[in-house]
Design goal:
The complex is a heterodimer of chains A (298) and B (300).
Chain A lengths: L1 E6 L2 E6 L9 H14 L1 E4 L6 H9 L8 H5 L13 E4 L13 H6 L16 E10 L7 E5 H6 L3 H7 L3 E4 L1 H7 L16 E4 L1 E3 L6 E3 L5 E4 L4 H15 L5 E4 L6 E5 L3 E5 L10 E8 L15
Parallel strand pairs in A: 2-3
Antiparallel strand pairs in A: 1-2, 3-13, 4-15, 5-13, 5-15, 6-12, 6-14, 7-8, 7-11, 9-10
Chain B lengths: L1 E8 L2 E8 L9 H14 L1 E4 L6 H8 L9 H5 L12 E4 L13 H6 L16 E10 L7 E5 H6 L3 H7 L3 E4 L1 H7 L18 E4 L1 E3 L6 E3 L5 E4 L4 H15 L5 E4 L6 E5 L3 E5 L10 E8 L12
Parallel strand pairs in B: 2-3
Antiparallel strand pairs in B: 1-2, 3-13, 4-15, 5-13, 5-15, 6-12, 6-14, 7-8, 7-11, 9-10
Classes of the chains: A alpha+beta (298), B alpha+beta (300).
Chain lengths: 298, 300
Protein backbone atom coordinates (compact mmCIF):
# COMPACT_ATOMS: atom_id res chain seq x y z
CA UNK A 1 0.00 0.00 0.00
CA UNK A 2 1.36 3.42 -1.01
CA UNK A 3 0.13 6.93 -0.22
CA UNK A 4 0.87 9.88 -2.49
CA UNK A 5 -0.03 13.27 -0.98
CA UNK A 6 -1.91 15.63 -3.29
CA UNK A 7 -1.14 18.69 -1.12
CA UNK A 8 1.48 19.09 1.62
CA UNK A 9 -0.07 17.17 4.54
CA UNK A 10 -3.59 17.12 3.09
CA UNK A 11 -5.33 14.48 0.90
CA UNK A 12 -3.42 11.43 -0.31
CA UNK A 13 -4.12 8.94 -3.07
CA UNK A 14 -3.80 5.33 -1.93
CA UNK A 15 -2.67 2.58 -4.28
CA UNK A 16 -1.72 -1.08 -3.97
CA UNK A 17 -4.66 -2.29 -1.91
CA UNK A 18 -8.00 -3.99 -2.63
CA UNK A 19 -10.57 -2.78 -0.11
CA UNK A 20 -13.36 -5.10 -1.29
CA UNK A 21 -11.83 -8.04 0.63
CA UNK A 22 -11.29 -8.28 4.41
CA UNK A 23 -8.24 -6.33 5.58
CA UNK A 24 -5.55 -7.34 8.04
CA UNK A 25 -5.13 -5.42 11.31
CA UNK A 26 -1.90 -3.93 9.92
CA UNK A 27 -3.65 -2.65 6.82
CA UNK A 28 -6.43 -1.05 8.89
CA UNK A 29 -3.84 0.58 11.15
CA UNK A 30 -1.94 1.90 8.11
CA UNK A 31 -5.12 3.47 6.71
CA UNK A 32 -5.89 5.03 10.09
CA UNK A 33 -2.36 6.45 10.22
CA UNK A 34 -2.90 7.90 6.75
CA UNK A 35 -6.18 9.46 7.87
CA UNK A 36 -4.50 11.05 10.90
CA UNK A 37 -1.88 12.50 8.62
CA UNK A 38 -3.80 13.49 5.48
CA UNK A 39 -7.45 13.76 6.76
CA UNK A 40 -8.73 12.65 3.31
CA UNK A 41 -7.76 9.46 1.44
CA UNK A 42 -8.67 8.67 -2.17
CA UNK A 43 -8.84 5.04 -3.39
CA UNK A 44 -9.22 4.64 -7.18
CA UNK A 45 -10.73 1.67 -9.03
CA UNK A 46 -12.47 0.02 -6.08
CA UNK A 47 -15.71 -1.51 -7.38
CA UNK A 48 -17.80 -2.18 -4.25
CA UNK A 49 -21.21 -3.61 -3.46
CA UNK A 50 -23.15 -2.04 -0.60
CA UNK A 51 -22.26 -5.03 1.59
CA UNK A 52 -18.53 -4.75 0.78
CA UNK A 53 -18.59 -1.03 1.51
CA UNK A 54 -20.28 -1.68 4.88
CA UNK A 55 -17.75 -4.38 5.73
CA UNK A 56 -14.77 -2.18 4.84
CA UNK A 57 -16.29 0.73 6.79
CA UNK A 58 -16.81 -1.39 9.92
CA UNK A 59 -13.04 -1.80 10.13
CA UNK A 60 -13.00 1.74 11.54
CA UNK A 61 -15.87 1.61 14.03
CA UNK A 62 -19.59 1.33 14.40
CA UNK A 63 -21.73 2.52 11.47
CA UNK A 64 -24.06 5.42 11.88
CA UNK A 65 -27.66 5.46 10.64
CA UNK A 66 -28.23 8.31 8.20
CA UNK A 67 -30.55 11.03 9.45
CA UNK A 68 -32.61 11.07 6.28
CA UNK A 69 -32.88 7.27 6.48
CA UNK A 70 -34.27 7.66 9.97
CA UNK A 71 -36.73 10.31 8.82
CA UNK A 72 -38.03 8.50 5.73
CA UNK A 73 -40.57 5.72 5.51
CA UNK A 74 -38.97 2.37 4.48
CA UNK A 75 -41.01 2.37 1.23
CA UNK A 76 -39.36 5.65 0.14
CA UNK A 77 -35.87 4.22 0.45
CA UNK A 78 -33.90 3.10 -2.60
CA UNK A 79 -31.07 1.35 -0.77
CA UNK A 80 -31.39 -1.59 1.60
CA UNK A 81 -29.37 -0.92 4.75
CA UNK A 82 -30.33 2.19 6.78
CA UNK A 83 -26.59 2.60 7.34
CA UNK A 84 -26.14 3.41 3.63
CA UNK A 85 -26.55 7.12 2.86
CA UNK A 86 -28.16 7.62 -0.54
CA UNK A 87 -26.15 10.45 -2.11
CA UNK A 88 -27.90 10.38 -5.47
CA UNK A 89 -30.57 12.14 -7.49
CA UNK A 90 -32.64 8.94 -7.76
CA UNK A 91 -35.95 7.98 -6.16
CA UNK A 92 -36.97 4.56 -4.78
CA UNK A 93 -37.78 3.40 -8.32
CA UNK A 94 -34.34 4.46 -9.61
CA UNK A 95 -35.72 7.45 -11.58
CA UNK A 96 -34.21 10.93 -11.50
CA UNK A 97 -36.04 13.18 -9.05
CA UNK A 98 -38.22 15.99 -10.40
CA UNK A 99 -37.22 19.63 -10.00
CA UNK A 100 -39.61 20.32 -7.08
CA UNK A 101 -39.05 16.97 -5.28
CA UNK A 102 -38.78 17.66 -1.54
CA UNK A 103 -35.96 15.12 -1.12
CA UNK A 104 -34.00 16.95 -3.82
CA UNK A 105 -34.54 20.26 -1.99
CA UNK A 106 -33.26 18.69 1.22
CA UNK A 107 -30.15 17.37 -0.57
CA UNK A 108 -29.25 20.87 -1.81
CA UNK A 109 -28.05 21.50 1.75
CA UNK A 110 -25.01 19.36 0.84
CA UNK A 111 -23.81 22.26 -1.29
CA UNK A 112 -23.05 24.21 1.88
CA UNK A 113 -19.72 23.54 3.64
CA UNK A 114 -20.41 21.10 6.47
CA UNK A 115 -19.09 18.31 8.65
CA UNK A 116 -21.26 15.18 8.56
CA UNK A 117 -23.63 14.62 11.48
CA UNK A 118 -22.35 17.64 13.39
CA UNK A 119 -26.04 17.93 14.38
CA UNK A 120 -25.49 14.85 16.59
CA UNK A 121 -24.01 15.25 20.05
CA UNK A 122 -21.06 13.00 19.13
CA UNK A 123 -20.69 14.15 15.51
CA UNK A 124 -19.32 11.62 13.01
CA UNK A 125 -15.86 10.08 12.74
CA UNK A 126 -14.99 9.08 9.17
CA UNK A 127 -17.31 9.21 6.19
CA UNK A 128 -16.72 6.92 3.20
CA UNK A 129 -18.20 7.81 -0.18
CA UNK A 130 -18.21 5.37 -3.08
CA UNK A 131 -18.98 6.51 -6.64
CA UNK A 132 -21.18 4.13 -8.64
CA UNK A 133 -22.38 6.50 -11.40
CA UNK A 134 -20.93 9.97 -12.02
CA UNK A 135 -22.21 12.81 -14.23
CA UNK A 136 -20.26 13.96 -17.29
CA UNK A 137 -19.89 17.48 -15.95
CA UNK A 138 -19.78 19.02 -12.45
CA UNK A 139 -20.65 17.30 -9.17
CA UNK A 140 -17.18 17.52 -7.61
CA UNK A 141 -16.81 17.14 -3.87
CA UNK A 142 -14.57 19.73 -2.21
CA UNK A 143 -12.71 19.22 1.06
CA UNK A 144 -11.29 21.90 3.36
CA UNK A 145 -8.54 21.29 5.93
CA UNK A 146 -9.75 22.58 9.32
CA UNK A 147 -6.32 21.96 10.92
CA UNK A 148 -4.58 24.28 8.45
CA UNK A 149 -7.46 26.76 8.80
CA UNK A 150 -6.99 26.77 12.57
CA UNK A 151 -3.21 27.15 12.30
CA UNK A 152 -3.65 30.16 10.01
CA UNK A 153 -5.87 32.15 12.42
CA UNK A 154 -4.27 35.27 13.86
CA UNK A 155 -3.53 35.19 17.61
CA UNK A 156 -6.47 37.43 18.45
CA UNK A 157 -9.00 35.21 16.68
CA UNK A 158 -7.37 32.06 18.06
CA UNK A 159 -7.92 33.43 21.57
CA UNK A 160 -11.48 34.56 20.71
CA UNK A 161 -12.59 31.10 19.53
CA UNK A 162 -10.73 28.96 22.09
CA UNK A 163 -13.59 28.40 24.55
CA UNK A 164 -16.60 29.04 22.34
CA UNK A 165 -19.39 26.48 22.08
CA UNK A 166 -21.68 26.43 19.05
CA UNK A 167 -25.17 25.01 18.51
CA UNK A 168 -25.78 22.69 15.56
CA UNK A 169 -29.02 21.47 14.01
CA UNK A 170 -29.94 20.14 10.57
CA UNK A 171 -32.72 22.77 10.68
CA UNK A 172 -30.20 25.64 10.54
CA UNK A 173 -28.48 24.54 7.33
CA UNK A 174 -31.84 23.93 5.66
CA UNK A 175 -33.37 27.20 6.93
CA UNK A 176 -30.65 29.12 5.13
CA UNK A 177 -31.89 27.63 1.87
CA UNK A 178 -35.54 28.16 2.80
CA UNK A 179 -36.32 24.45 3.40
CA UNK A 180 -38.20 23.25 6.47
CA UNK A 181 -40.33 20.32 5.32
CA UNK A 182 -39.22 17.47 7.60
CA UNK A 183 -42.53 15.66 7.96
CA UNK A 184 -44.32 14.86 11.18
CA UNK A 185 -42.67 13.00 14.02
CA UNK A 186 -39.18 14.31 13.22
CA UNK A 187 -39.13 17.36 15.49
CA UNK A 188 -36.81 15.66 17.99
CA UNK A 189 -34.20 15.09 15.26
CA UNK A 190 -33.76 18.80 14.61
CA UNK A 191 -33.16 19.77 18.27
CA UNK A 192 -29.78 21.60 18.51
CA UNK A 193 -26.69 19.96 20.04
CA UNK A 194 -23.56 21.68 21.34
CA UNK A 195 -19.98 21.44 20.08
CA UNK A 196 -16.71 23.14 20.88
CA UNK A 197 -15.68 25.47 18.06
CA UNK A 198 -12.09 24.31 18.49
CA UNK A 199 -11.47 20.58 18.82
CA UNK A 200 -8.34 18.56 19.40
CA UNK A 201 -7.70 15.37 17.44
CA UNK A 202 -7.56 12.42 19.89
CA UNK A 203 -4.51 10.82 18.20
CA UNK A 204 -2.42 13.64 16.73
CA UNK A 205 -3.29 16.27 19.36
CA UNK A 206 -3.66 18.83 16.57
CA UNK A 207 -6.28 21.51 16.97
CA UNK A 208 -8.82 22.24 14.28
CA UNK A 209 -11.83 24.47 13.71
CA UNK A 210 -15.09 22.58 14.08
CA UNK A 211 -17.30 24.43 11.63
CA UNK A 212 -20.41 23.33 9.77
CA UNK A 213 -23.42 24.80 7.94
CA UNK A 214 -25.45 23.20 10.73
CA UNK A 215 -24.27 25.89 13.19
CA UNK A 216 -27.11 28.27 14.10
CA UNK A 217 -25.68 30.03 17.13
CA UNK A 218 -22.89 30.40 19.66
CA UNK A 219 -23.81 29.86 23.30
CA UNK A 220 -24.38 33.23 25.06
CA UNK A 221 -24.03 35.30 21.86
CA UNK A 222 -26.87 37.15 20.11
CA UNK A 223 -27.84 34.98 17.11
CA UNK A 224 -27.08 37.54 14.35
CA UNK A 225 -23.63 38.22 15.79
CA UNK A 226 -22.90 34.51 16.06
CA UNK A 227 -23.98 33.83 12.49
CA UNK A 228 -22.01 36.76 11.06
CA UNK A 229 -18.91 35.55 12.94
CA UNK A 230 -19.31 31.91 11.89
CA UNK A 231 -19.69 33.07 8.28
CA UNK A 232 -16.41 34.97 8.55
CA UNK A 233 -14.67 31.94 10.06
CA UNK A 234 -16.11 29.67 7.35
CA UNK A 235 -14.89 32.00 4.64
CA UNK A 236 -11.44 32.00 6.20
CA UNK A 237 -11.43 28.20 6.54
CA UNK A 238 -12.46 27.49 2.97
CA UNK A 239 -9.96 29.70 1.14
CA UNK A 240 -8.44 28.06 -1.92
CA UNK A 241 -5.16 27.22 -0.14
CA UNK A 242 -7.03 24.95 2.32
CA UNK A 243 -9.27 23.27 -0.28
CA UNK A 244 -8.98 20.16 -2.45
CA UNK A 245 -11.53 19.50 -5.20
CA UNK A 246 -12.14 15.82 -5.89
CA UNK A 247 -13.24 15.07 -9.43
CA UNK A 248 -15.12 11.77 -9.31
CA UNK A 249 -14.45 8.70 -11.44
CA UNK A 250 -16.61 5.61 -11.25
CA UNK A 251 -15.42 3.27 -8.47
CA UNK A 252 -13.58 5.94 -6.52
CA UNK A 253 -13.86 5.61 -2.77
CA UNK A 254 -13.00 8.71 -0.80
CA UNK A 255 -12.85 8.70 2.98
CA UNK A 256 -12.53 11.79 5.15
CA UNK A 257 -12.28 12.61 8.82
CA UNK A 258 -15.23 14.78 9.86
CA UNK A 259 -13.32 15.85 12.96
CA UNK A 260 -10.69 17.71 10.90
CA UNK A 261 -12.37 18.61 7.59
CA UNK A 262 -15.44 20.18 6.04
CA UNK A 263 -16.76 19.24 2.62
CA UNK A 264 -19.43 20.21 0.14
CA UNK A 265 -20.91 19.01 -3.15
CA UNK A 266 -20.80 21.19 -6.23
CA UNK A 267 -23.59 21.70 -8.73
CA UNK A 268 -24.24 19.36 -11.66
CA UNK A 269 -27.11 18.92 -14.11
CA UNK A 270 -29.09 16.68 -11.76
CA UNK A 271 -32.31 16.84 -13.79
CA UNK A 272 -30.52 15.40 -16.84
CA UNK A 273 -27.64 13.27 -15.52
CA UNK A 274 -27.42 10.53 -12.90
CA UNK A 275 -25.00 10.81 -9.98
CA UNK A 276 -25.15 7.78 -7.70
CA UNK A 277 -22.84 7.86 -4.68
CA UNK A 278 -23.19 5.75 -1.53
CA UNK A 279 -22.04 6.95 1.83
CA UNK A 280 -21.25 5.14 5.04
CA UNK A 281 -20.28 7.02 8.21
CA UNK A 282 -18.54 5.94 11.37
CA UNK A 283 -20.13 7.03 14.62
CA UNK A 284 -18.31 9.64 16.64
CA UNK A 285 -17.24 8.31 20.00
CA UNK A 286 -17.18 11.36 22.21
CA UNK A 287 -18.88 14.67 22.94
CA UNK A 288 -16.92 17.81 22.16
CA UNK A 289 -18.96 19.88 24.63
CA UNK A 290 -21.35 19.40 27.50
CA UNK A 291 -24.97 19.17 26.35
CA UNK A 292 -27.82 21.00 28.05
CA UNK A 293 -30.05 18.50 29.89
CA UNK A 294 -32.96 18.64 27.41
CA UNK A 295 -30.54 17.74 24.61
CA UNK A 296 -28.76 14.92 26.36
CA UNK A 297 -31.52 12.52 25.26
CA UNK A 298 -30.05 12.59 21.74
CA UNK B 1 -7.73 66.02 -10.43
CA UNK B 2 -5.74 62.83 -10.84
CA UNK B 3 -6.86 59.15 -10.51
CA UNK B 4 -4.45 56.30 -9.68
CA UNK B 5 -5.77 52.72 -10.07
CA UNK B 6 -5.84 50.75 -6.80
CA UNK B 7 -6.29 47.25 -8.21
CA UNK B 8 -6.13 45.49 -11.53
CA UNK B 9 -8.06 42.40 -12.58
CA UNK B 10 -8.35 40.60 -15.91
CA UNK B 11 -11.27 42.87 -16.86
CA UNK B 12 -9.37 46.11 -16.20
CA UNK B 13 -8.86 48.56 -13.34
CA UNK B 14 -11.06 48.50 -10.25
CA UNK B 15 -11.13 51.30 -7.64
CA UNK B 16 -9.19 54.54 -8.10
CA UNK B 17 -7.46 56.88 -5.67
CA UNK B 18 -8.32 60.50 -6.48
CA UNK B 19 -6.12 63.49 -5.58
CA UNK B 20 -6.12 67.20 -6.34
CA UNK B 21 -9.72 68.14 -5.57
CA UNK B 22 -11.60 69.59 -2.57
CA UNK B 23 -15.10 68.11 -2.53
CA UNK B 24 -16.36 70.33 0.29
CA UNK B 25 -16.38 73.32 -2.10
CA UNK B 26 -18.93 73.80 -4.93
CA UNK B 27 -17.75 71.95 -8.06
CA UNK B 28 -17.81 73.01 -11.71
CA UNK B 29 -19.79 70.99 -14.26
CA UNK B 30 -16.50 69.83 -15.70
CA UNK B 31 -15.31 68.50 -12.33
CA UNK B 32 -18.57 66.62 -11.80
CA UNK B 33 -18.29 65.12 -15.28
CA UNK B 34 -14.70 64.03 -14.56
CA UNK B 35 -15.81 62.25 -11.37
CA UNK B 36 -18.64 60.53 -13.23
CA UNK B 37 -16.25 59.42 -15.95
CA UNK B 38 -13.96 58.06 -13.21
CA UNK B 39 -16.88 56.17 -11.67
CA UNK B 40 -17.77 54.61 -15.02
CA UNK B 41 -14.21 53.40 -15.37
CA UNK B 42 -13.22 52.44 -11.80
CA UNK B 43 -16.67 51.82 -10.15
CA UNK B 44 -15.15 52.87 -6.78
CA UNK B 45 -13.35 56.17 -6.10
CA UNK B 46 -11.43 56.99 -2.93
CA UNK B 47 -10.84 60.62 -1.82
CA UNK B 48 -8.68 61.39 1.23
CA UNK B 49 -8.76 64.40 3.60
CA UNK B 50 -12.26 65.62 2.70
CA UNK B 51 -13.46 67.43 5.82
CA UNK B 52 -17.22 67.17 5.31
CA UNK B 53 -20.03 68.04 7.66
CA UNK B 54 -23.47 66.58 6.91
CA UNK B 55 -24.54 69.64 4.94
CA UNK B 56 -21.48 69.79 2.69
CA UNK B 57 -21.67 66.01 2.11
CA UNK B 58 -25.31 66.26 1.04
CA UNK B 59 -24.55 69.26 -1.18
CA UNK B 60 -21.70 67.40 -2.88
CA UNK B 61 -23.85 64.26 -3.27
CA UNK B 62 -26.64 66.18 -5.06
CA UNK B 63 -24.26 66.75 -7.99
CA UNK B 64 -24.96 63.17 -9.02
CA UNK B 65 -28.75 63.02 -8.71
CA UNK B 66 -31.59 62.92 -6.27
CA UNK B 67 -30.88 61.74 -2.72
CA UNK B 68 -32.47 58.59 -1.40
CA UNK B 69 -33.99 58.35 2.08
CA UNK B 70 -32.24 55.59 4.03
CA UNK B 71 -34.33 52.52 4.86
CA UNK B 72 -33.06 52.57 8.43
CA UNK B 73 -34.26 56.17 8.69
CA UNK B 74 -37.64 55.36 7.16
CA UNK B 75 -38.23 52.53 9.56
CA UNK B 76 -37.14 54.26 12.77
CA UNK B 77 -39.10 56.79 14.80
CA UNK B 78 -37.83 60.42 14.48
CA UNK B 79 -36.89 60.50 18.17
CA UNK B 80 -34.56 57.48 17.67
CA UNK B 81 -32.60 59.07 14.82
CA UNK B 82 -29.19 60.66 15.30
CA UNK B 83 -28.95 62.12 11.77
CA UNK B 84 -31.15 63.64 9.03
CA UNK B 85 -33.36 61.31 6.97
CA UNK B 86 -31.15 61.56 3.86
CA UNK B 87 -28.09 60.60 5.87
CA UNK B 88 -27.76 56.90 6.65
CA UNK B 89 -26.19 56.41 10.06
CA UNK B 90 -23.41 53.84 9.58
CA UNK B 91 -22.17 53.93 13.15
CA UNK B 92 -22.35 52.03 16.41
CA UNK B 93 -23.81 55.05 18.24
CA UNK B 94 -27.27 55.74 19.55
CA UNK B 95 -29.00 59.11 19.54
CA UNK B 96 -27.05 60.22 22.61
CA UNK B 97 -23.77 59.30 20.88
CA UNK B 98 -23.24 56.32 23.21
CA UNK B 99 -22.01 52.99 21.90
CA UNK B 100 -24.84 50.50 21.44
CA UNK B 101 -25.09 47.50 23.78
CA UNK B 102 -24.46 43.92 22.60
CA UNK B 103 -28.15 43.06 22.35
CA UNK B 104 -29.30 46.41 20.87
CA UNK B 105 -31.80 45.73 18.09
CA UNK B 106 -30.30 48.36 15.76
CA UNK B 107 -26.85 46.85 16.25
CA UNK B 108 -28.13 43.39 15.32
CA UNK B 109 -29.87 44.66 12.16
CA UNK B 110 -26.68 46.47 11.17
CA UNK B 111 -24.79 43.15 11.24
CA UNK B 112 -26.49 42.46 7.93
CA UNK B 113 -23.98 44.90 6.42
CA UNK B 114 -21.33 42.24 6.91
CA UNK B 115 -22.93 40.25 4.07
CA UNK B 116 -22.01 41.16 0.48
CA UNK B 117 -24.74 43.41 -0.87
CA UNK B 118 -25.66 46.23 -3.21
CA UNK B 119 -27.35 49.19 -1.47
CA UNK B 120 -31.13 49.42 -1.79
CA UNK B 121 -31.37 46.48 -4.17
CA UNK B 122 -34.62 45.85 -2.25
CA UNK B 123 -36.17 48.91 -3.95
CA UNK B 124 -37.84 48.59 -7.37
CA UNK B 125 -35.65 51.48 -8.54
CA UNK B 126 -32.41 50.64 -6.76
CA UNK B 127 -29.56 52.95 -5.79
CA UNK B 128 -26.98 54.42 -8.17
CA UNK B 129 -24.02 55.77 -6.16
CA UNK B 130 -23.40 55.56 -2.44
CA UNK B 131 -21.05 58.06 -0.77
CA UNK B 132 -19.55 57.11 2.57
CA UNK B 133 -17.66 59.63 4.68
CA UNK B 134 -15.51 58.51 7.62
CA UNK B 135 -15.71 60.79 10.65
CA UNK B 136 -14.36 58.46 13.37
CA UNK B 137 -12.64 55.14 12.62
CA UNK B 138 -11.68 52.29 14.99
CA UNK B 139 -8.04 51.43 15.64
CA UNK B 140 -8.42 47.95 14.19
CA UNK B 141 -10.80 46.24 11.76
CA UNK B 142 -13.91 47.77 10.20
CA UNK B 143 -12.62 47.78 6.60
CA UNK B 144 -15.12 48.04 3.79
CA UNK B 145 -14.58 45.59 0.92
CA UNK B 146 -15.75 46.14 -2.63
CA UNK B 147 -16.19 43.52 -5.36
CA UNK B 148 -16.21 44.24 -9.10
CA UNK B 149 -19.39 42.76 -10.62
CA UNK B 150 -18.23 43.61 -14.16
CA UNK B 151 -15.09 41.52 -13.82
CA UNK B 152 -17.13 38.80 -12.08
CA UNK B 153 -19.52 38.69 -15.01
CA UNK B 154 -16.75 38.66 -17.61
CA UNK B 155 -15.09 35.70 -15.85
CA UNK B 156 -18.17 33.44 -16.00
CA UNK B 157 -17.99 30.52 -18.40
CA UNK B 158 -20.18 30.72 -21.52
CA UNK B 159 -22.70 28.15 -20.24
CA UNK B 160 -23.33 30.11 -17.02
CA UNK B 161 -23.60 33.39 -18.92
CA UNK B 162 -26.25 31.87 -21.16
CA UNK B 163 -28.08 30.34 -18.19
CA UNK B 164 -28.37 33.60 -16.23
CA UNK B 165 -28.90 36.06 -19.10
CA UNK B 166 -32.66 36.45 -18.61
CA UNK B 167 -33.04 35.39 -14.95
CA UNK B 168 -34.97 37.68 -12.60
CA UNK B 169 -34.38 37.64 -8.83
CA UNK B 170 -36.48 38.77 -5.87
CA UNK B 171 -34.89 41.10 -3.30
CA UNK B 172 -36.05 42.09 0.18
CA UNK B 173 -34.32 43.35 3.30
CA UNK B 174 -36.01 40.42 5.04
CA UNK B 175 -33.85 37.82 3.29
CA UNK B 176 -30.49 39.25 4.26
CA UNK B 177 -31.61 39.58 7.87
CA UNK B 178 -33.23 36.14 8.01
CA UNK B 179 -29.95 34.52 7.07
CA UNK B 180 -28.35 35.90 10.21
CA UNK B 181 -31.37 35.02 12.32
CA UNK B 182 -33.13 38.36 12.55
CA UNK B 183 -36.85 37.66 12.07
CA UNK B 184 -39.24 39.63 9.87
CA UNK B 185 -41.59 40.30 12.79
CA UNK B 186 -38.90 42.36 14.56
CA UNK B 187 -39.28 45.15 11.98
CA UNK B 188 -42.64 46.06 13.53
CA UNK B 189 -46.13 45.96 12.04
CA UNK B 190 -45.80 49.45 10.47
CA UNK B 191 -42.87 48.44 8.32
CA UNK B 192 -44.04 45.18 6.75
CA UNK B 193 -44.93 46.94 3.46
CA UNK B 194 -41.30 48.06 3.10
CA UNK B 195 -40.21 44.44 3.15
CA UNK B 196 -42.23 43.27 0.16
CA UNK B 197 -39.88 41.71 -2.41
CA UNK B 198 -39.00 43.57 -5.61
CA UNK B 199 -37.69 42.08 -8.85
CA UNK B 200 -34.28 42.71 -10.41
CA UNK B 201 -32.45 41.34 -13.43
CA UNK B 202 -29.52 39.10 -12.47
CA UNK B 203 -27.48 40.55 -15.34
CA UNK B 204 -27.62 44.28 -15.86
CA UNK B 205 -26.05 46.56 -18.41
CA UNK B 206 -24.44 49.87 -17.44
CA UNK B 207 -26.33 52.75 -19.13
CA UNK B 208 -23.13 54.63 -20.08
CA UNK B 209 -20.43 52.05 -20.68
CA UNK B 210 -22.73 49.30 -21.99
CA UNK B 211 -20.79 46.79 -19.89
CA UNK B 212 -22.64 43.87 -18.37
CA UNK B 213 -22.37 43.04 -14.70
CA UNK B 214 -23.79 40.56 -12.20
CA UNK B 215 -26.47 42.13 -10.05
CA UNK B 216 -26.08 40.18 -6.82
CA UNK B 217 -26.95 41.08 -3.24
CA UNK B 218 -27.55 39.43 0.13
CA UNK B 219 -31.10 40.75 -0.24
CA UNK B 220 -31.86 38.10 -2.91
CA UNK B 221 -34.30 35.47 -1.60
CA UNK B 222 -35.14 33.60 -4.78
CA UNK B 223 -35.16 33.49 -8.58
CA UNK B 224 -38.50 33.84 -10.39
CA UNK B 225 -39.66 30.41 -11.59
CA UNK B 226 -37.16 28.51 -9.42
CA UNK B 227 -37.69 26.70 -6.13
CA UNK B 228 -36.31 28.68 -3.20
CA UNK B 229 -33.61 26.18 -2.08
CA UNK B 230 -32.29 25.75 -5.62
CA UNK B 231 -32.25 29.50 -6.18
CA UNK B 232 -30.44 30.20 -2.92
CA UNK B 233 -27.82 27.50 -3.49
CA UNK B 234 -27.15 28.91 -6.97
CA UNK B 235 -26.98 32.53 -5.75
CA UNK B 236 -24.49 31.44 -3.08
CA UNK B 237 -22.30 29.86 -5.74
CA UNK B 238 -22.47 32.98 -7.92
CA UNK B 239 -21.70 35.21 -4.94
CA UNK B 240 -18.69 33.11 -4.02
CA UNK B 241 -17.45 33.36 -7.59
CA UNK B 242 -18.06 37.11 -7.71
CA UNK B 243 -16.27 37.89 -4.45
CA UNK B 244 -13.08 35.92 -4.97
CA UNK B 245 -9.89 37.81 -4.05
CA UNK B 246 -9.05 38.81 -7.61
CA UNK B 247 -12.20 40.95 -7.87
CA UNK B 248 -12.00 42.59 -4.43
CA UNK B 249 -10.58 45.89 -3.15
CA UNK B 250 -10.39 46.25 0.66
CA UNK B 251 -10.54 49.83 1.88
CA UNK B 252 -8.72 50.60 5.13
CA UNK B 253 -10.39 53.73 6.50
CA UNK B 254 -8.71 56.91 7.66
CA UNK B 255 -10.72 59.78 9.17
CA UNK B 256 -12.08 62.12 6.44
CA UNK B 257 -11.90 59.53 3.67
CA UNK B 258 -14.81 59.72 1.28
CA UNK B 259 -15.49 56.64 -0.85
CA UNK B 260 -18.02 56.63 -3.69
CA UNK B 261 -19.20 53.39 -5.28
CA UNK B 262 -21.59 52.49 -8.04
CA UNK B 263 -24.18 50.04 -6.71
CA UNK B 264 -25.03 49.01 -10.27
CA UNK B 265 -21.60 47.48 -10.84
CA UNK B 266 -20.28 46.54 -7.37
CA UNK B 267 -21.12 44.76 -4.14
CA UNK B 268 -19.63 45.72 -0.80
CA UNK B 269 -19.56 44.61 2.83
CA UNK B 270 -18.30 45.82 6.19
CA UNK B 271 -15.78 43.78 8.17
CA UNK B 272 -15.85 43.11 11.88
CA UNK B 273 -14.39 45.47 14.48
CA UNK B 274 -14.64 45.75 18.24
CA UNK B 275 -17.87 47.75 18.14
CA UNK B 276 -18.60 47.40 21.86
CA UNK B 277 -15.38 49.23 22.73
CA UNK B 278 -14.42 51.44 19.79
CA UNK B 279 -16.40 54.10 17.93
CA UNK B 280 -16.86 53.91 14.16
CA UNK B 281 -18.87 56.82 12.83
CA UNK B 282 -19.51 56.90 9.09
CA UNK B 283 -22.20 58.82 7.22
CA UNK B 284 -23.70 57.61 3.99
CA UNK B 285 -25.61 59.53 1.38
CA UNK B 286 -27.16 57.60 -1.48
CA UNK B 287 -28.15 58.65 -5.00
CA UNK B 288 -31.39 57.28 -6.37
CA UNK B 289 -31.21 55.23 -9.56
CA UNK B 290 -33.26 56.28 -12.57
CA UNK B 291 -34.85 53.04 -13.74
CA UNK B 292 -36.07 49.58 -12.79
CA UNK B 293 -34.07 46.58 -13.99
CA UNK B 294 -37.14 44.32 -14.37
CA UNK B 295 -40.94 44.69 -14.53
CA UNK B 296 -42.52 44.44 -11.07
CA UNK B 297 -45.46 42.26 -10.08
CA UNK B 298 -48.79 44.09 -9.73
CA UNK B 299 -48.92 43.68 -5.95
CA UNK B 300 -45.37 44.96 -5.49
Amino acid sequence: MRMTPLHPGFVAEVSGIDISVPLSGDEVAAIEDGMDRYAVLVFRDQPLTDEQQCTFSRSFGELEMTLIGQMMKPTERRLGPVEMGDISNLDAAGKMRARDDSRRMYALGNRLWHSDASFRATGAGYSLLSARVVPGYGGNTEFADMRAAYDALDDRTEAAVEDLVSEHSIAFSRDVLGFNDYGEGNEDKVRPVRHSLVRTHPVTGRKSLYLSAHIGGIVAWPVPEARAFVRDLTEHATQPQFVHAHQWRVNDLVMWDNRTTMHRARRYRDLQEVRDLRRTSIKGTRLTAEQVPAMAAE
Amino acid sequence: MNITPLTQNPAGNFAGDVTGIDLTQPLTGRQVAAIEAGMDRFAVLVFHDQHFNDDTQLAFSRNFGELEISSGGEMSKPEDRRLKLEMADISNLDRDNKMRAADDRVRLVALGNRLWHSDASFRAVPAKYSLLSARVVPGRGGNTEFADMRAAYDALDAATKAEIETLVTEHSNVYSREVIGFPKESYGADNQDKLRPVRQRLVRTHPVTGRKSLYLSAHIGTIVGWSVPEARAFIRDLTEHATQRAFVYAHVWRPWDLVIWDNRTTMHRARRYDDLHEVRDMRRSTIRGDSMTAPQQEAA
